[in-house]
Amino acid sequence: MGAAASECPKTYGRALVAEGIEPRQTATGTSYKARVYDARAGKRVSKTFATLAEARRWRAAKLDEAARGIGIVGPADRLRDVAEKFLAGARAGTVRTRAGTHFRPSVVREYERSLRLHVLPDLGGAPIGRIQRRDLQRLADEMLGAGADASTIRNALKPVQAIYRRLIQDGDLSLNPCAELRLPAARGRRERIATPEEARALVAATRPGHRALWGCAFYAGLRRGELRALRWEHVDFARGLIRVESSMNSYGELSDPKSRAGRRAVPIVAALGELLADHRVLTNHVDGYVFGSSPQTPFTPSNIRRSANTAWGHADLKPIGLHECRHTFASILIAAGVNARAITAYMGHASIQITFDLYGHLMPGNEREAVTLIDAFLARDATA
To answer: Which domain holds residue 337?
Structure first.
């Protein structure tokens, strides 16, 4: 009797089966329309369900969101307008990363490019609060069907994910349509690693004015942007160190290195020291950019690569990229027996785990060392 009474309609101007829930008769039976008032938007929100239980659950959840100050209706602004405000804030520094840091200019440009090319043509006119997971999933599926690379699809949705993350943090939305998207896995390409003998031959085959640059990539592991930004005052011959203080993007803009750990000191090995000394004599420069076309003008990566590829072709050597030279440097450190923590510092990795994730497979003797340690532990335990 009590259970039946709880289902009895209450009257508030029209029949309700429960507070805020109205039954509706349809051709297929009874449905239930639940309503909630969104104080932030100043309007009522409603949704129809097939069962009373579903309607109650939805209404209870929305009432809880409203009590916590979360918008139920969602902003009516179009995705295009919200994206424009987000990018403007990221450029100005008022919108920050998840870690609370400024967005790098190169990241903002990549976000703008991804939105303009892949997202806004399809979803730019849609209200931000009405875009659902299936809309973004359809976009990802269509890009995949058109032959887009997995990394392109993931990069296209990164700014959308950042936008919705901020809306949820601000309480404008409760559900994130970017959650649980089925995105294709980005297959990591196998990076080329040169042997020490090959590295020497590759450096020697390039033009005299470019040998120190390639040597710095092979024997110090600097990233391309760090090579472009390197200045003579950061090369300490007396102490045998290169201080990595800044980086330069493809637009010639200077910034901090990739991470906090990117600001580091890298030892100058003998092979690199000779190349740098010869380079200083050849250029007759003591300040400004080390590898620039002039002390005031950084080098152009495409020109360096084109020149090197031509030289390597004449010498019948397999070409290599600057980033692959960095991997070669890591392999040399590992083969020489440098400890993992030092490798992490010299490579400028944010954590030692990154070093193990990237180069753990190159570290020899892991299995033998593990067996030795485990056998010793078990032997001690047996005699305890």
So the answer is: 196-362
